[in-house]
Amino acid sequence: MSHYIVQPAAGVSGTVRVPGDKSISHRALMLGGIADGVTEVRGFLESEDCLATMKAMRALGVSIDQTGAAGAREVRIQGVGLHGLKGAGHALDMGNSGTAMRLMTGLLAGQQFDSELIGDASLMKRPMERAAVPLRKMGARIRTLEGKPPVQIAGGASLSGIRYDLPVASAQVKSAVLLAGLYARGATTVIEPAVTRDHTERMLLGFGCAVEAVKGVVTVEPPARLNACSLDVPGDFSSSAFFLVAGAISTGSGFAGSSFVIRGVGINPTRTGLLDILALMGADLRLINHRSAGAEPVADIEVHPAKLRGITVPGHLVPLAIDEFPALFVAAACAEGETLVTGAEELRVKESDRIAVMERGLKALGVDCEATPDGMRIRGKPAGAAFSGGRIDSDGDHRIAMSFTVASLRAAAAIQIDDVANVATSFPGFVATARGAGLNVAEHT
Ligand code: S3P
Fold first, then answer.
1. Total structural domains in the chain?
2. Which residue out of 232, 236, 323, 419 is catalytically annotated?
3. Measured from the CB, is residue 322 less than 6 Å from ligand 1?
4. Domain containing 316 — which CATH number?
5. Strand locations in 125-210, DSSP E?
6. Range of the structural domain that residue 88 is part of
7. Of 103, 281, 284, 298, which one's alpha carbon is 20 to 30 angstroms from that of 311?
8. By alpha-carbon position, which residue is closest to atom 4 of ligand 1?
9. Do the domain assignments include residue 227?
């Protein structure tokens, strides 16, 4: 099993670029696949998760080419039209990706053929009824195994639009329902209990589909067709999170006045809760060079080291930072005083139980913390080394592996991080990017 050995380093400096946005890359493949015409995608994330979606769309009859040199890769999707997908004839393997599985469940619910979705050991344990329940209300015929994959979707169902109050703040469930809504009779409305990422809504508009979103009430009208378009994928804010924290907790002499810049990051406000949380903790972050990549706002983010203080994380920011808590917990361990996170029980059903796995890892490095059912309490150590050296089991969770890599900036000795192969599900090239910024990480297989 591959692992990282991370030696202590003083800080990060210079400029980094993070790979394309994972959520947007999945959606580009799905919508491009059912559009009329050729959709060109620049900046597509060629990570294992998105490649699983690509393979699935190909198996459903969509021709997809990857062109261009490394760093400027382009994906061309020959859309087959709303009603042009064909049954794969075998189970579609969504790998490690909950997004791929839940969104594909929505997309496949209104098709004429049967489908089955499976995944890796982590994905096979994750809850799928949250997507199946509203889709069944629309008329879909979906089976799960005690709420978990395999997900079996019977073809030929006739779907009707519904008005659905989401019981959990989940962009994946919202998106699954909206995608099924493309095939339904009448309008489909989803009401969100809290703001979640809105990439599906933005992208549907770009493909010429009527979507209305007002104060957490999102309605899609079934379109006659989707029109292929050209898409630019911004850098993934969630991948930038590790470097935002790294920049904030850098301490070595020479870093105090230096700047560290992460270029070309998507700053869709439904994703950037971590910026607000870090700002409340006293971090020195500046957004510069604002621009847009199609429907998505983009900026460079400049980070300076700062003395962080513990806070109670405001509840409304939790869904806006849902993938960033592993990195935030590392920042909290370097802050003065206590940080309290509540209302984040969703972390227990991510790629790993991120509350339990982070608590175990932080404790292995000597951090004073305790997990609660829906969050974590962390008492930080602002001066000197916040972490001892030690050995961490990432439980195969990419974001946990990358978060503990960043902890090395405030560690007294080397950290070994086990089971890191899944970093490639979201951030291919992480080790090289991290080393380029100043982290002393090496992968051993
Ligand atoms: C995602 C939504 C979030 C997030 C995941 C990606 C998406 O999941 O954690 O990494 O692309 O829609 P939930 O919708 O389950 O919160």
1. 2
2. 323
3. yes
4. 3.65.10.10
5. 141-145, 148-154, 163-165, 188-191
6. 22-220
7. 298
8. 323
9. no
Is residue 323 in contact with ligand 1, taking CB distance under 6 Å? yes
| CA 321 distance to own-chain centroid | 10
Instruction: Check if 99 has its Cβ closer than 6 Å to any atom of ligand 1.
Output: yes
> Does 348 fall in a domain?
yes
Active-site annotation holds for 276: no
In whole angstroms, what separates CA 243 from the centre of its chain? 15
Q: Which residues contact 408 (CB under 8 A, 6 or more apart)?
A: 6, 7, 8, 9, 387, 414, 415, 439, 440, 441
Q: How far apart are CA 284 and CA 50, in angstroms?
A: 33
CB 413 within 8 A of CB 366: no
Pocket test for ligand 1, best of 168, 190, 322 (most atoms within 8 A of CB): 322
171 lines ligand 1 (CB under 6 A): yes
Q: Is 408 in the pocket of ligand 1 (CB under 6 A)?
A: no
Q: What is the mean pLDDT of each run of 10 residues along the chain (445 residues)?
A: 96 96 98 98 96 98 91 90 98 98 98 98 98 98 98 98 98 98 98 97 98 97 98 98 97 68 98 98 97 96 96 98 98 98 98 98 98 98 95 98 98 98 98 98 97
Radius of gyration of the chain (CA): 21
